[in-house]
Amino acid sequence: MKTLVDSFDRQFSALHQRSFEFVKLIPNEKLFWKPRQLNRTFATFSCGEYILRSAGKVEQTFGGITTRLWDDPFEWTLPEELSTVNSILKYLAEVEETRRQGLSLITTDEDLQREMPAPEKLKTIFEILLDTIARAEHFQGRAFATFQMFSDEKLPRI
Questions:
Q1: DSSP reduced 3-state for 48
Q2: Contact 89, 24 (CB under 8 A)
Q3: Model pLDDT for residues 92-117, shown as the tens digit of each residue
Q4: pTM of the prediction?
Q5: Would residue 158 count as lying in a domain?
Q6: What is the DSSP string of 66-133?
Q7: Long-range contacts of 34-41 (CB under 8 A, 24+ apart)
């Protein structure tokens, strides 16, 4: 039985679809636009940076699950590397394929109880996936909020 695995699959698929549709709404010149930085607030990033952080979290997790290498994709997801809407869409498609391959290795809900080093300490696959979807959706939500500062376009449905 794989009720939980299917649920994770749907959630990650929806996350990907929202990000993919969202990035197509952003003009290239606004992709890395940042709101005004104030000393009394937390650091703010651009829509592009938040979406790349969201996808990067997914890539890191499924790369870790499949290869046991928990490399942070920060270096190859810098705005200098992925500077256009099309390059980000291509990266999102690559991350989605990595996610599909990784999730295909989890065949039953019981597999979610297996522990693995992730990356600092042992965690169940369930804990890893739950943390990943929460963080990725958080970054996606921040991208949506930043987008609303400069656009009246309707956001992809959450």
A1: helix
A2: yes
A3: 999 999 999 999 999 999 999 999 98
A4: 0.91
A5: no
A6: HHS----TTGGGSTTTS-SHHHHHHHHHHHHHHHHHHHHT--SGGGGG-EEE-SSSEEEHHHHHHHHH
A7: 34/146, 35/146, 35/149
- Which range of 14-23, 61-70, 120-129 scores highest in mean pLDDT? It is 14-23
- Give the CATH number, domain containing residue 52: 1.20.120
- What per-residue confidence (pLDDT) applies to 158? 65
Torsion sign, CA atoms 128, 131, 137, 139:
negative
Domain of 94?
Answer: 3-28+46-147
| Mean pLDDT score across all residues of the chain | 90
* Mean pLDDT value of segment 57-75: 84
Residue type present at position 44: T
In a domain, 153, yes or no: no
- Asked if residue 157 is part of any domain, the answer here is no
**Residue 8 token pair:** 């994770």
Tell me whether residue 41 is in a domain. Answer: no
The tokens describing 95, both together, are 């991350």
Tell whether the model's pLDDT for residue 38 goes beyond 70: no
Q: How many domains does the chain have?
A: 1
16-27: average pLDDT:
96
